Amino acid sequence: MNLPKVYLASASPRRKELLTQIGVNFSVLSIAVDESVKSGENPSDYVERIALAKARAGWDILQTDFRPVIGADTAVVLPTQQILGKPESLDQARDFLGQLSGIQHQVLSAVAIVWQQQYWLSLQISDVRFKTLTNTEIDWYLATGEGKDKAGGYAVQGLAAMFIENISGSYSGVMGLPLFETRQLLQQVTNLNEQ
């Protein structure tokens, strides 16, 4: 499959690793967007809006090399529809893990591609069930620092895998970039480019 060379509007090591895994030739763009949740915004609208904002921010800084730009966003969502972002403190990370303990939550991952005046957008939703965590387990995990800069305060590809009883959906989506959907969008861009 001949996918186009793209830009990734993200500094996330996980997203870089995932794109590399499927053989995408990419360069990283450093972008900054406001990731605040708007009042009354539902989780799927939120992650799609942020993924598209990242891709558009990347496109906007390009001057001459107009390759497609990928943006992505991931949110951990409680059954109450509350979005758990990246914890801002150790106490908040402890609170997040306590709320995830013993329940099934959703992980929403959106991927967007902007190229010329067009955009493509896809949303992937996975169900993740955590075991009931003891305070000792939560304290141990927090001491590792692994979940510090991750949505929901945990990393599925790391030590937190020991807490996960079941995943229904996309493992790569829970990691931060749904590869099946990403490939589909890249193929659409490639097909358009070849017309």
TrEMBL record:
Location in or out of the cell: Cytoplasm
Cellular component, GO annotation: cytoplasm
Pfam families assigned: Maf
UniProt KW Disulfide bond keyword: no
GO terms assigned for molecular function: dTTP diphosphatase activity; UTP diphosphatase activity
Catalytic activity: UTP + H2O = UMP + diphosphate + H(+); dTTP + H2O = dTMP + diphosphate + H(+)
The keyword Cell membrane is annotated on this UniProt entry: no
Superkingdom of origin organism: Bacteria
Gene3D superfamilies reported in the protein's UniProt record: 3.90.950.10
Family, as annotated: Belongs to the Maf family. YhdE subfamily.
Residue(s) at site: Important for substrate specificity: R14, T74, Q157
GO terms (BP aspect): nucleotide metabolic process
Active site residues according to the UniProt entry: D73 (proton acceptor)
Physiological role: Nucleoside triphosphate pyrophosphatase that hydrolyzes dTTP and UTP. May have a dual role in cell division arrest and in preventing the incorporation of modified nucleotides into cellular nucleic acids.
PANTHER family assigned to the protein according to its UniProt record, in alphabetical order: BIFUNCTIONAL DTTP/UTP PYROPHOSPHATASE/METHYLTRANSFERASE PROTEIN-RELATED, BIFUNCTIONAL DTTP_UTP PYROPHOSPHATASE_METHYLTRANSFERASE PROTEIN-RELATED
NCBIfam families: maf
Name of the featured protein: dTTP/UTP pyrophosphatase
Co-factor(s): a divalent metal cation
EC numbers: 3.6.1.9
UniProt cross-references to HAMAP family, sorted A to Z: Maf (MF_00528)
Alphabetical UniProt keywords: Cytoplasm, Hydrolase, Nucleotide metabolism
